[in-house]
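Regression test case RT-17, inverse folding.

Input:
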């Protein structure tokens, strides 16, 4: 069954004449009649009563008509969906993000993306890094932002390193000196965020490699709560640099320098499901990330992608 057969059938049913249907379709009457006869042979029944001055649908033709209309309608919608994927300025983009990235890194990038592509509808889903990579692998999200985790069905492309910074309240002795050692940190009450997070595990690893056991007094599931407790002088903490910018600028928290070998960095990755083709909204977002973070996403974006500047591919 071919698209042309359905179109000729519906046009003839609408105007009640093979001749008029052929004229409306810019084709010869014999060609249109041949299409309909071929369709009738495939369905093994006449679809039209051939009358002296025109045609009208048989009972079988009446039964078939709504299905032909539905098929044409679905194909039209399919064409529109494909057209939207080819136009960076329209479409839908679903982003999955680890919570910390979604709170502190994603909003500025998303604001820039929405200003460049205001007609793209953007949806956000958040979770742990392990949740985000599963969402990317399952096609639940178009793009994921998380800590680097391997999955055979997902491209995991390096984006940037997030530095984890030791912070204290302004009156703390460490703040007065501006630096400390990992051994001194071990003697201080620590307030840490999310014991199951990658960043928590990396801090523990850094302490073990230094041969110390951290004095963890409190664990919280909120970075904002962790910052408030540190600002009140209830302990010190390791927090992502992106999460403390405003508090450092206002003087509520003080970053404390540590020796290079004890500094902790979390690699942040962008995740996309492995595929041969990606929609223009997805490629535009990846191009923007590549521009903002000065990283190499050419494995997916391509070396000469212009989407991040708003140019159509």
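Golden output:
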């Amino acid at each position: 069954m071919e698209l042309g057969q359905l179109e000729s059938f519906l046009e003839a049913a609408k105007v009640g004449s093979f001749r008029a249907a052929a004229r409306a379709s810019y084709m010869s009457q014999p060609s249109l009649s041949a299409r309909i006869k071929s369709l009738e042979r495939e369905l093994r029944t006449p679809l039209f009563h051939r009358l002296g001055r025109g045609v009208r649908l048989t009972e079988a033709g009446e039964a078939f008509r709504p299905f032909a209309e539905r098929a044409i309608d679905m194909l039209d919608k399919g064409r529109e969906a494909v057209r939207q994927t080819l136009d960076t300025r329209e479409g839908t983009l679903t982003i999955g993000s680890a919570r910390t990235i979604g709170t502190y890194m994603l909003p500025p990038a998303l604001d820039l993306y929405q200003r460049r592509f205001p007609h793209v509808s953007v949806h956000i889903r958040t979770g742990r890094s392990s949740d985000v990579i599963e969402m990317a692998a399952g096609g639940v999200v178009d793009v994921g932002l998380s800590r680097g985790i391997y999955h055979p069905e997902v491209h995991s492309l390096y984006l940037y390193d997030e530095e984890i910074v030791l912070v204290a309240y302004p009156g703390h002795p460490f703040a007065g000196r501006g630096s400390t050692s990992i051994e001194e940190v071990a003697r201080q009450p620590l307030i840490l965020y999310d014991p199951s997070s990658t960043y928590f595990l990396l801090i523990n690893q850094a302490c073990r490699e230094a041969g110390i056991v951290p004095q963890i007094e409190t664990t919280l599931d909120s970075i904002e709560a962790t910052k408030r407790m540190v600002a009140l002088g209830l302990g010190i903490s390791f927090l992502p640099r992106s999460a403390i910018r405003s508090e450092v600028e206002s003087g509520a928290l003080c970053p404390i320098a540590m020796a290079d070998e004890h500094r902790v960095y979390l690699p942040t990755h962008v995740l996309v499901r492995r595929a041969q083709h990606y929609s223009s909204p997805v490629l535009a977002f990846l191009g923007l990330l590549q521009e903002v973070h000065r990283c190499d996403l050419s494995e997916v974006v391509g070396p000469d992608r212009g989407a991040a500047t708003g140019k159509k591919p």
